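Team,

Forwarding the record for the chain on the shared tracking sheet. I've put the sequence and predicted structure together so nobody has to dig through attachments.
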Amino acid sequence: MIFVLETKSKKLKNNSFILKEFLDNAFNLKSHLMEFLSISECDLDGFLANAKTNLANSHPGDNLSDVADFYTEIVGDRHLADLAAWHITSKDYIADTLKLQQRFSRDLVLDFGGGIGTHALANAMSSRVEHVFFVDINETNRKFVEYRAKELGVEKKLTFCKTIKDTKISKFDTIVCLDVLEHLANPDSQIEIFNEIMDCNSIALFNWYFYKGDNNEYPFHIDDSQIVERFFKTLQSKFLEVFHPILITTRVYKKFK
């Protein structure tokens, strides 16, 4: 498989410029949402203000037989709104995850469960990254990030897929999986898959939040103690943690040699 590497300086930016652009406007997130959803700024503000509540209220609770169904069939554009609201209101924290990503991302990158595309787009802007594979089961998310990539001029460095198998890549140099594992019915199985598609020089960035909230405000998160324990046992059996000095919840891992 051959990838086209965009070399124009305005599209491959240095790390400090990428961070500044995100802190200024989250890579033009609001304007992208208005255009993609054909919505006015006033209506968008209301949409974002109620995003978390609307997403939580859409969850069918114990009636949900397959967690994937929630993100493919139920959420619609409410997931976009929830993620956008989080990225806009928590820009300092998100910027720190981008700083961490800049330390480790290189060559072929898998962004698993990439949401609204902040991390995939930032990686696509980096000269250290050859190509980014954006994987998300939600078709609306994929279409939105594809739209954003074109608007930002980095579309040649991104491929959009529903599953990891669709990428047709056997090994990745970097894996980014942020705010995803707590949504999976079997996060330990996903760790096993990541282990299989990494080599001894690959790096993975993971975080998790196995908690439904004090008032069930995150009903779509997994918090079953047996599932969580199985996850940590698998993680610790497959990966060695790599120290980094940034004070955030995201962790960095490499495979045991």
